[in-house]
Fold:
Amino acid sequence: MPRPDTQLPSLRPGAAAAAAGRDLAPERIVRLEEDAVVVLDQRRLPEEEVELRCRDAGELAEAIRTLAVRGAPAIGVAAAYGLALAAASGDDVDEAYATLLAARPTAVNLRWALDELRPHPTPERARALHDREVARCRRMAAHAAALLPAGSRVLTHCNAGGLATAGYGTAVGAIRAAWERGLVERVWVDETRPLLQGSRLTAWELEQLGIPHAVIADSAAASLMARGEVDCVVTGADRIAANGDTANKIGTYGLAVLARYHGIPLYVVAPTSTLDATARSGDAIPIEERDGAEVTPRFAARNPAFDVTPAELIAAIVTERGVHRPPYDRSLRP
Ligand code: MRU
Structure:
């Protein structure tokens, strides 16, 4: 069983306090009210901070499908609240379960959270699930921070921050924890075509936290690596198979190949709610195909939203349990 590294450098003076001061409170990202699941509408960020009220499972499923709430753990938390709302409103819980489950196919956290809630879909249990997910993020971030050398220039892809996890973040949580310890010089933020989760959401979160960063075109990653300007790649995950193959935002696989070529470690940071022991390898992970109009409204387009990075290209997978090294079929086992 992996053990957390306890030999961490001391905190950068004032950094933790500064970051905490501008923290995105979990209940600001998603919460349950008496008659609605309320989400911070991520489609409108960073221009506007607008809340969206979802009054039943159908409206919430639509919010998940259209990425008003997105990111694997955040989708799971929102769905848990959706099931609790259905039960409290006297709606058919089985129907709500099916509606929410069908919203998006790749992030396994959706199914995991719905299955956790289904036997007793109460608001208290949904809120406890939310609290536990945020606590997991904080634990895995501390483990992952220990992997980063001082002065790290970290490249990240998509958005695996508080917005994506309903609080604190996975990959961005790790970067944040490392920065608070004085280990991070700068973050390279892949813009993340086609929906720009990097340049809209990750950059916004890093700005709020005061962490030095620069957005790059996705296609700039290779040359930055070749010039020696990237020390590690840190990403989140949407589903991790039993052998460590990892589905994440489209483009992650390409980064992993580049990182291996340039001798740079790629770390995946994700909670155990993202592990899918029933998928033996990445071949069993369903990949969402989204509307081609997200790529170009003018021409025919193909738009797979995720890709699978083979386990052999991943230097470590970090969960709240610790740092898992290959072979993952052994190290990820509970
Ligand atoms: O399509 P999205 O925006 O829901 O994509 C999910 C992601 O944000 C990432 O792939 C992320 O790394 C995993 S969620 C922390």
Summary: The longest strand covers residues 184-190. Residues 67, 70-73, 158-160, 164-165, 170, 197, 235-238, 248-249, 305 surround MRU (CB under 6 Å).
